[in-house]
Specification:
Elements lengths: L4 E5 L6 E5 L2 E3 L2 E3 L5 H4 L10 E7 L5 E7 L7 E7 L1 E8 L10 E7 L4 E5 L3 E7 L4 E7 L8 E3 L20 H4 L14
Length: about 190
Amino acid sequence: MSARFEIAGTALAGLQLIKRLPIRDERGWLERMYCAEEFATLMCGQGIAQINRTLTSLRGTVRGMHYQMPPHAETKLVSCLQGAVFDVAVDVRRGSPTFLQWYAERLSADNHYSLLIPPGFAHGFQTLEDNCELLYLHTTRYTPQAEAALGARDPRLAIAWPEPISAQSARDAAHAPLGRDFQGVGL
């Protein structure tokens, strides 16, 4: 443990829950979002190539489940800056003992949690409040031709979304359920 982060593994190997530890005083607080030195091992020695920020206006909205195929597979560090989300990662690594299992964590502005999602995981979230803002740090830039996705309502995944899905993009809603022949992503 460092003075700025508590890092804990999850039931899915490589997927890490990170709690940022703010330093507080009478003015408020300061928290470190990322430290290259402390995260070097978790990020497999890769630096941050891209930072993205999203705002999702409507409670119950689902974004995802997205990932990038090799050689553009990425590690993502996802943090909620405003509101609260049910953040989900699905293991799509070929041969993994937790293949197609999912893990979810509530990320919020108040709990200071981040999810570090390694290559070979699909990612998505559902907003638990209106006006949720997320910050993503990526080790690889977005490459449209390498993008792949799973359906958020895929019965094979059986993600237990905490609320009825109020909105999805047309693209995300159109993802077909996984066929029995889906073998996952080789890394």
